[in-house]
Design a protein that fits this description.
Chain B: InterPro entries: ABC-2_transporter-like (IPR010390). Chain B: Keywords: Membrane, Transmembrane, Transmembrane helix. Chain B: This is ABC transporter permease. The complex is a heterodimer. Chain A is of the alpha/beta class. Chain A has twelve helices and 13 strands. Chain A has a six-stranded mixed β-sheet with strand order 5-6-7-3-8-9, sandwiched between helices. In chain A, strands 11-12-10-13 form a four-stranded antiparallel β-sheet, with helices on one face. Chain B contains twelve helices and two strands. In chain B, helix 3 packs across helix 11 and helix 8 runs parallel beside helix 12. Chain B starts with a helix and ends in a 6-residue tail after the last helix. The chains are: A alpha/beta, B mainly alpha.
Chain lengths: ~325, ~260
C-alpha cells in the first residue's frame, strides 16, 4: 500500500509586484500587478509504507509547500493527494490523527509548561489511551534520552534538547507516517546521530514511513535510500541515492601536498596525454588532479607525480553527495 | 464530549502555567482587582452628574453598564483573538494548529484564554446589584436563567463580530486597524441606544449588534416592556452572528496560504 500518492499536484501563489516611484504607488492602489507563480508545479510521486524518503531541493524549490499540502495545512490549487488513504485538507481533523509532524523551526510544545505536561495535553488531543501511551512513550523517552528533561519547561531547554522532545511529541499517537521538515537544523553532531538512530529504529520497529526534508545531506545519506529532488517546483530526480551518485559522480580528485615547491606547468607536462586537469589552491599550496572514473588513470597519475616530486601528503577524494547535487543544479535537468 | 474534556484540559494547563509564575499571578490578580475598583468608582463619578438621559434614570444607566461588563468579561477571557493576524498568520503558528485533530478555532481560543478577565464579571454583578437594589428591582425565579441566556447571547455577538474580523487575515495578510476601532464601537452598546440618532441605532442593532450586549438584554431586567422584543432576540442574534463567523472561519482556513520559513 502506498502511504503517499501525489498526482499532478500544483500550488500557485499570487506574487504582487509594486511599481516604482510615488506615481507607481498610487497606481498600485487601484490595480495591483501580480504574477501567478507556481510554487509546486504539477508533481507526481508515490511513497510506499515503511519507506524513508529524502525530499531535497534548494531554498524556495517548493519543499515546504509540498509538505504543507501533504499535511493538510494548505489546499492545493489542482491535482490530487492521497495520504494514508485520505484527502488531507478535506478530512483534516481525522487525517492528522494518522500523521506526525516536526517543523524544525517551529515548536509544537507549549513554551511555558513542563515537557511532560505538553505530552499529557497532546495525549488527550490525540485520544491516546494510558496503556498505549505508557508502552510506547516509555520506549521513546528512553531512546531519545529525554527522561531528565521531562519536568523542565520548554523555554529552558537547549535547541538539541528541545528538538528531541519535539520528536517525541510528534510520536505520541504512534503515527504510521512522519513528516520531518528540517529536523536537524542547527544541531550538533551528537544530537544529530542520536536522532538518526532513533528514526532508523522506529522505522524498523513500527514500519513508519518517513518523509524528510533537510539541507544537511549527511542526514539523507544516513537515513534514506531514496531521494526526491525538487527544483523550481518540479521533480528533477526521483530514485535511489546510490544510482544518483553513480550517474552523476564526475571522477575522482587526487590532492597532493609537496615537500618542495612545485609548478603547475611542470605537473601538467608530466601527465601530458592523460585525461587529467590540474588545479592549485594558492593559499595552502595544495595541488589537485581531477581525473575521470578510470581507476587505472588514478594510479598512473599518482605514480608519475610521486616519482618526480617529494610528496608530503596524498588524498583521493570522491565527490560528496553535496557536490553531486550542486552539479545537478548547476547543469539543470537530470 | 471530546471538546468538553479538551476545554477542561486546557484550563488545567492554563492554571499550571499561571502557577509557574507565582509572583506574576499575584501581581496580576491585584492589578486586575484594582482596575476593576477604579472602573467602579469611575462609573459612579461619571454618572453621578447625570440624573436623566432621554428618559433613563441614573441607576438604570449604571445597571445597563453593569450588565454589559458580564458578557464583556467572558468575551475577553475566552476570545483573545485581537492579535490573531500577527501571532498566527504572520508568525505561522496556524501551521501547528492545523496539524492537530481539533477544530482550529477551538484551539486558538483555548490557547489564548485569559481567565483573569473573569474578575470583570464580578464587578459587573456588583454594579447590577447595587443599582438594582436602589431601583427596588426584584429577582424572580426565572431571572437567573434568562440572565445566563442573555449573557451567553451577548458573548456570542461579541465573539462573532471579532472572529469575522480575524478572518480578514485569511484573505489579506496586511495588518489592519479594524480591531481597535471595533473595540471602541463595542463600547457604544453599553449606553441606551435611543440616545443616538437613527442610523447609529440601526447599525448597533443589525449590522454590528453591540446593543445586544448591553442595553437590549438589560432592559428586560429593568422591566422596560417596549424593549422586550429586542431582549429576547439577544440569544438568536448571538447564534446567527457566531454561526456565520464560524462558517467564515472554516472558509478562511481553506484559503490560508501559510507563512514561509
Amino acid at each position: 500500500m502506498n502511504a503517499i500518492e501525489v498526482r499532478d499536484l500544483r500550488k500557485e501563489f499570487k506574487a504582487y509586484s509594486s511599481r516604482s516611484g510615488l506615481k507607481g504607488a498610487f497606481r498600485d492602489l487601484l490595480t495591483r500587478n501580480y504574477k501567478i507563480v507556481p510554487a509546486v508545479n504539477d508533481i507526481s510521486f508515490a511513497v510506499k509504507q515503511g519507506e524513508m524518503v529524502g525530499y531535497i531541493g534548494e531554498n524556495g524549490a517548493g519543499k515546504s509547500t509540498t509538505i504543507k499540502m501533504l499535511t493538510g495545512i494548505l489546499t492545493p490549487t489542482s491535482g490530487s493527494i492521497t495520504v494514508n488513504g485520505m484527502n488531507p485538507h478535506k478530512e483534516r481533523e481525522k487525517f492528522v490523527q494518522t500523521i506526525g509532524v516536526v517543523f524544525g523551526q517551529r515548536s509544537q510544545l507549549w513554551w511555558d509548561i513542563a515537557v511532560q505536561e505538553s505530552f499529557r495535553l497532546l495525549k488527550k488531543v490525540y485520544k491516546v489511551s494510558d496503556a498505549h501511551y505508557n508502552e510506547h512513550m516509555d520506549h521513546v523517552i528512553k531512546t531519545l534520552d529525554i527522561e531528565p528533561l521531562l519536568d523542565k519547561p520548554v523555554r529552558k531547554l537547549s535547541l538539541g534538547q528541545r528538538m528531541r522532545c519535539e520528536l517525541a511529541a510528534a510520536l505520541i499517537h504512534n503515527p504510521p507516517l512522519l513528516f520531518l521538515d528540517e529536523p536537524t537544523i542547527g544541531l550538533d553532531v551528537l544530537v544529530k546521530l542520536k536522532i538518526r538512530d532513533f528514526l532508523k529504529e522506529i522505522n524498523e520497529k513500527y514500519n513508519t514511513t518517513i518523509l524528510l526534508t533537510t539541507h544537511d545531506l549527511t542526514d539523507i545519506e544516513a537515513l534514506c535510500e531514496r531521494v526526491v529532488m525538487l527544483d523550481e517546483g518540479k521533480v528533477i530526480y526521483d530514485g535511489s541515492l546510490k544510482s544518483m551518485k553513480e550517474n552523476w559522480a564526475e571522477g575522482k580528485e587526487i590532492q597532493f601536498e609537496f615537500l618542495e615547491s612545485a609548478e603547475l606547468t611542470q605537473l601538467e607536462r608530466l601527465t601530458a596525454g592523460m585525461q587529467v586537469k590540474w588545479e592549485i589552491d594558492e593559499k595552502s599550496r595544495i595541488f589537485s588532479a581531477l581525473t575521470g572514473d578510470d581507476d587505472e588513470l588514478v594510479s598512473q597519475v599518482i605514480a608519475k607525480t610521486v616519482a618526480s616530486h617529494k610528496v608530503k601528503d596524498v588524498k583521493i577524494n570522491e565527490p560528496s553527495t553535496e557536490e553531486i547535487i550542486r552539479n545537478i543544479y548547476e547543469r539543470g535537468m537530470v | 464530549m471530546f471538546y468538553f474534556t479538551m476545554f477542561f484540559q486546557y484550563i488545567g494547563q492554563y492554571m499550571k502555567t499561571r502557577l509557574e509564575y507565582r509572583a506574576d499571578l499575584v501581581v496580576e490578580i491585584v492589578s486586575d482587582l484594582l482596575s476593576q475598583a477604579i472602573n467602579l468608582i469611575f462609573i459612579l463619578v461619571v454618572f453621578g452628574h447625570t440624573d436623566f438621559l432621554n428618559g433613563w434614570t441614573r441607576e438604570e444607566i449604571i445597571f445597563i453598564y453593569g450588565f454589559f461588563l458580564v458578557p464583556y468579561a467572558l468575551f475577553t477571557s475566552f476570545f483573545n483573538i485581537w492579535d490573531f493576524n500577527e501571532r498566527y498568520i504572520v508568525k505561522g503558528e496556524l501551521d501547528r494548529i492545523l496539524t492537530r485533530p481539533v477544530h482550529s478555532l477551538f484551539q486558538v481560543i483555548l490557547e489564548r484564554m485569559e481567565l483573569e478577565s473573569l474578575f470583570g464579571a464580578v464587578t459587573g454583578l456588583a454594579v447590577m446589584f447595587y443599582s438594582g437594589s436602589r431601583l427596588g428591582l426584584e429577582v424572580n425565579w426565572y431571572d437567573p436563567l434568562l440572565f445566563a441566556l442573555f449573557v451567553l447571547g451577548g458573548v456570542l455577538v461579541y465573539a462573532g463580530i471579532f472572529i469575522m474580523i480575524a478572518c480578514i487575515s485569511f484573505w489579506a495578510d496586511a495588518r489592519t486597524s479594524i480591531m481597535p476601532m471595533m473595540y471602541n464601537i463595542g463600547n457604544y452598546g453599553r449606553y441606551p441606544v435611543d440616545i443616538y440618532n437613527k442610523v447609529i441605532r440601526f447599525v448597533l442593532t443589525w449590522v454590528l449588534p453591540f446593543a445586544f450586549v448591553g442595553v437590549y438584554p438589560a432592559a428586560f431586567f429593568l422591566g422596560r416592556k417596549e424593549w422586550y422584543f429586542y431582549s429576547f432576540l439577544t440569544p438568536l442574534i448571538g447564534l446567527v452572528f457566531f454561526g456565520v463567523s464560524v462558517m467564515l472561519w472554516n472558509k478562511g482556513v481553506k484559503k490560508y496560504s501559510g507563512a514561509g520559513n
